[in-house]
Amino acid sequence: MIPELVAEIGINANGDMEIAKQLIAKADLAGCKFVKFQKRHIPSCYSDDELALPRQSPWGMTTKEQKEGLEFSVEDYQEINEYCDDVGIGWFYSPWDVKSVVQMSVFRCPWVKIPSARLTDIQYLHAVRDHSEKTILSTGMHTLEEADFAIDVLGNVEYILHCTSTYPTKPDEINLNCIKTLKKRYPWAKIGFSNHYAGLMAMLGSAILNAEMIEFHITLDRTMYGSDQAASIENPEELAHRLYLLDKMMGDGEKKVYDSELPIKEKLCR
Question: What pLDDT does 1 receive?
C-alpha cells in the first residue's frame, strides 16, 4: 500500500504567492494527494521582546519584519484554496495559535494538523477540538504520555505521525522503528511519518514499516532563504517513483517460481 503523500509547503514559500503556486503544482505533478501550510497570528505566537530582536532577512532587520514577511493572510489562503481546487489537489494547515485556529476554520479542510510545539497547550487543543472535524498529531519533542494527553483532549485524532523535530534530522535520531511502537500503542489510529531528513531514505524506510501517511517539506531550491529549506525535498517526483517501485517489489508474500525463472531452473538445476 502506498502512503498518502503530503508536501509541506509552510514557510518555504517565503510569503510569496507565486512560489506557493509553483510548489503546489510541483507537488501535484509528483503524485502528492495534499499540500500543507502553516498559519500564525504573529502577536499571539511571539512576545514584543522577541519581535524586536535583530534578525536580518529579505524583509528587514528585525524578527517582526521576518515573521510578517513569511506569513500569508487569510485572504491569501482563499486564493490558495481556489488554486488547489483548480489544480485538483487537497490541502490543509497547521495553525499555531488560537486566533489562527478560529480564522482558518472557514476553509473546512479535511484535517487540522497539530504542530509538535503545541502538543501540550490545553487552551490551543480545546480550540482545535471545537473548530475541526478531524486532526493529525505530530509527536516531535514529546513523550508518549504527552501524546496521550493531546489525544484525550482532542478526541478527533485520525493520524498520528512519528517525528523528530530537528532540521535536518541526523540519521541516528530518526528512529523509524517508533512507527511500530505507535502502531502497537494506538491500534485505532492511522500511523505515519513526518520527515525532516535531507533525503529520501527515511521516507522509503517508513513505507516499508507501513506508514499510512508521509509528510515532507518541499522546496524549489534547498539554498533558498528559510530555516526549513535544508530539510526539504527538491525532487518529490523521485520519491513518488521510488515508493511505487517499492510497493511493486514488496509483492504478496507468497513464495512462487516465476515463469522468467523456469528456463534458468531447467539449465542450472540438477
Answer: 77
